[in-house]
Write a structure and sequence with these properties.
Blueprint (H helix, E strand, L loop, with lengths): L17 H13 L11 E5 L5 E5 L28 H9 L10 E4 L20 E8 L5 E6 L2 E5 L2 E2 L8 E4 L3 E8 L8 E2 L6 H4 L8 E7 L4 E6 L5 H6 L3 E7 L8 E10 L6 H6 L4 E4 L5 H4 L2 E3 L4 E10 L4 E5 L4 E6 L6 E2 L4 E4 L3 E8 L4 E7 L2 H5 L3 E6 L1
Parallel strand pairs: 4-9, 8-13, 14-17, 16-24
Antiparallel strand pairs: 1-2, 2-3, 4-7, 5-6, 9-11, 10-12, 12-13, 14-15, 17-22, 18-21, 18-23, 19-20, 19-22, 23-24
Bound molecules: copper (II) ion.
């Protein structure tokens, strides 16, 4: 199926360096992240898709032994020059010791229209193909925050974090294929599927390909992720995405968004940091404060539906929209779980939810996890309602 074929309703970022400047300006106004803009980062190039990329000096040789033999820059010994966790990450990436090595390019974690899921369609009489690549290594560096610009060496599906959203309909059969393009084993775990872990969720060696069919028996909003050991690290490094299974008869017409909440620890591959919690950044759709700079759009009076997945790996989401109430809530996005008015919903790690709301009047409405330590670390965005 074609993924994310809808035009995005959020405002497109301006091209070239103005992307960075406008983001910085807006972030300063937001006052949500402390610290200045790192002088060592600069806008380097635009990808084919028009997404901005940032280039950082190469990291120094690693000084420790990161988990799983990863060559993560996380273990560099550069001292932090600033108390902010983001600034220490920058310091780790920007060690002058490695000026002869190739610079690190950090790209936008996910497409600009990621928040807009593909449209509903009726159940298909044929099998739905869904293919992913798994990736790791220095080429998979993403920008998890923009103020200051903060690179993170991800592991990912489809070269993006979060991974592509799969949307199918109750009763569909999915033919899934994983091609491991990484340098370490990866695997898949679809929470929407019912199949033996020992059969279909096993690790695939680098260069390997694996395929299996599964049936979307339950409508809902589900997480999928890599389950390769250590699973905490593969998830925290970015290997997760959302599956939306629509009920057979669809849902009422609404403006729809998908939000995947997740956490980042250090600059990639820092297993001890992931184990000890707390995170340095908590984000929606791969980057801190992404939707403060490019708000999600809506109109007063229209029905808005949000599919939420909390990829964790450690923190629950207390999802809340400031100035609005959810008129409808389904734990796991499962229609029989439907409940009425909620002010804040709990989405545990590894879980999903569906909420619907209607904005009463034009204006700006922040959305957050009401666990405010996490909201302050980047899990804050805006709805701009006309
Ligand atoms: Cu993996």
């Amino acid at each position: 199926m074609v993924l994310r074929s809808n035009p995005t309703p959020s405002e497109p970022a301006p091209p070239g360096s103005s992307i960075l400047l406008s983001r910085r300006t807006l972030l300063r106004r937001s006052g949500m992240v402390a610290g200045g803009v790192g002088a060592t980062a600069f806008l380097a190039a635009c990808s084919a898709a028009g997404a901005p990329a940032w280039t950082f000096p190469a990291p120094a040789a690693t000084a420790g032994a990161p988990a799983q033999g990863s060559s993560s820059p996380a273990a560099t010994a550069s001292p932090a020059t600033n108390a902010s966790p983001a600034a220490s990450t920058m310091a780790g990436m920007a060690s002058p010791a490695a000026s002869a090595a190739a610079p690190v390019v950090a790209r936008d974690p996910s497409p600009a229209d990621f928040a807009v899921p593909p449209p509903y369609r009726p159940v298909s009489s044929s099998v739905i193909p869904f293919s992913l690549t798994s990736n790791d290594g220095p080429d998979e560096t993403i920008l998890i925050a923009t103020n200051p610009p903060t690179p993170y060496q991800s592991k990912n599906f489809g070269r993006q974090v979060p991974a592509p959203t799969l949307r199918v309909t109750e009763g569909d059969t999915v033919r899934f294929t994983l091609a491991n393009q990484g340098q370490m084993p990866h695997s898949i775990d679809f929470h929407a599927a019912q199949t033996a872990w020992s059969r279909n969720y096993q690790e695939i060696a680098p260069g390997g390909t694996f395929s299996f069919d599964w049936k979307a028996s339950y409508p809902g909003v589900f997480m999928y992720h890599c389950g390769a050991a250590p699973v905490l690290m593969h998830m925290a490094d970015g290997m997760y995405g959302a599956v939306i299974v629509d009920p057979k008869d669809g849902r009422p017409t609404a403006r729809e968004y998908v939000l995947v909440q997740s956490e980042f620890y250090g600059s990639g591959g820092q297993y001890a940091k992931m184990l000890s919690d707390p995170p340095d950044f908590v984000v929606f759709n791969g980057q801190a404060l992404r939707y403060k700079t490019t708000p999600l759009l809506a109109k007063a009076g229209e029905l808005v539906r949000i599919f939420i997945v909390n990829a964790g790996p450690n923190s629950s989401s207390a999802f809340h929209v400031i100035g609005a109430l959810f008129s409808h809530y389904e734990s796991d996005g499962y229609p029989p779980n439907a409940m009425g008015m909620h002010q804040t919903i709990d989405v545990p790690p590894g879980s999903g939810a569906l909420v619907e709301l209607t904005f009463a009047e034009p204006g700006t409405y922040p959305f957050v996890t009401h666990k405010f330590s996490d909201a302050t670390k980047g899990a804050t965005g805006l709805f701009k309602v006309s």
